[in-house]
Amino acid sequence: MASHSATSVPTWVAVCGNLAPAAAIVVFLAPWPTIANIRRDRTVGTLPLLPYSSMIASAFLWVVYGLLKNESKIWSSNGVGLVLGLYYFGNFVKHAPKAAPTLPGSVKQHLQAMGTVILGTLMLALSPMQSPVNIIGTLGVIFCVAMFASPLAALKTVLETKSAQSIPLPFTLASTANCLLWSITGIFDMKDPNVIVPNLLGLVFSLAQVVLKIVYGDGPKGKLEPLPL
Fold it and tell me: 114-149 pLDDT, tens per residue?
């Protein structure tokens, strides 16, 4: 199947398409400071392992999907995400206690889950089915939507405390730009629902977090005491 990049698209769409992989890599790089702190402190504290194991599984799905669709923008950017995910995962496990309640689950269970996704993806890709790419794409969409929506799990806390301090603004802005660029590329260039749907939803989720950050900021400021007369 020929890549859609070879077809004629408006210049602004082509620019977005060229920027989209770089934006995805920026998002993949977001956990780097956290892992650097783990390496420095030699402990994971109360941090969960799930973001890194899910990054590996999701990136692998999209690498295979990109290869099957002959879309270099997809497989190249997610290939970087896969390498980074493995690096994050390895460093986390190295400094995680054997019985950490915040993983969630054991390291072995995470490895089994990742192995299941990777093996299942390879079996689908190599199967004689007419369109295994559609199934792989659907699984990729599910992973993407889950990851993009996960920060909104703190929505109740933000509304109750009237503080959006738990929402990291740089990462949220990077996610917004990433989803916007991929949405434009998916709609006007690739014309691929498996690219369009998760990124449009991710854009909505990211914009919701931006709005919460603007509305609540880092919480109510303390009231100024009146000056003594």
Answer: 999 999 999 999 988 777 899 999 999 988 877 766
Contacts with 185 (C-beta within 8 Å, 6 or more apart), sequence order: 13, 16, 17, 20, 73, 195
pTM summary value? 0.85
Q: Are 114 and 56 in contact (CB under 8 A)?
A: yes
Query: Which string of DSSP letters, residue by residue, matches 117-150?
Result: HHHHHHHHHHSS-S-HHHHHHHHHHHHHHHHHHG
* Burial of 20: CB neighbours in 10 Å, binned 0-12, 13-18, 19+: buried
Closest CA to 181 of 19, 6, 11: 19
Structure tokens at 35: 């892992």
